[in-house]
Amino acid sequence: MKITVTPESFQLAEAFTISRGSRTQADVLTVRITDGGVTGWGECVPYARYNETLESVTDQINSLPPALDRDILASALAPGAARNAVDCALWDLEAKSAGKRVWQLAGLGAPGPQLTTYTLSLDTPENMRASAAKNAHRPLLKIKLGTADDMARLEAVREGAPKARIIVDANEGWTADVYSDLAPHLLRLGVELVEQPLPAGKDDMLAEIARPLPVCADESAHDRSSLPDLKGKYDVVNIKLDKTGGLTEALALKFQALEQGFDVMVGCMVGSSLAMAPAVIVAQGALVTDLDAPLLLSQDRATPLKFDDAGVHPPQAELWG
User: Fold this and answer.
1) What are the C-alpha distances in Å from 57 to residues 40, 61, 66, 80, 226?
2) Per-residue pLDDT reduced to its tens digit, 66-76
């Protein structure tokens, strides 16, 4: 078994901004695992918020033993970007070796397209109004917020896209007071869900204040071990494979979260169609699918995911799985 790690960059169609900063390209790691003449691959997006860099994640992957399966991987690496790319590459390798699709190997039904959000990055109210108007035909918009001056942005987006469904993502940028002040206006403007309004580790107040609309845990939710601390504070869990450490844990987290009464959102970092492909499998039946990253790119993989009015479609075998 041979594992190779390759850094790659994909240019964005325009700058993408959240409360923590901006980027103009998606910097990813592509992992290929070859065994018996068959190669499987996966992608991860190292994320500075979790103290990950391209170099540190590459070192983690290169530290793995040459004889590897998903159980050994789960013991060798903690949840995160490194384990994600390798886990997904192992699933792809197994599917190609067996001549089956990943969902068959996982004992799941054949997946279908999932309606996905389209994300509007943080900007001035005027620019966000223009972006909302440009994308008003899309059925579900996700707005990046996370400052103390977000009211004008909310109003502007609703003016630009008066009929679109809207969810918002504060990326840990609000305080409890700011969120309490904004919550009635979120309802008035028809917002359906708010994602990570308070910083992870400083979100206990969510159990004490009114939650008039569903609150989704993102930075506060990583894998199944996160679930006990989310009870009473969150209604929805955002599953991202770069947090769970791959498809294996993502599926387990989904089933356990649903069993415990949470709804599920399936999200992503800003990566290519290769990173989204396994997440489409997890997203089947989710309350919210947020896998629009390829739509934000000016370039993508040779066999990209298909997006149309039905949403994001499952990957072709040529891409993954």
Assistant:
1) 19, 6, 17, 9, 22
2) 889 999 999 99
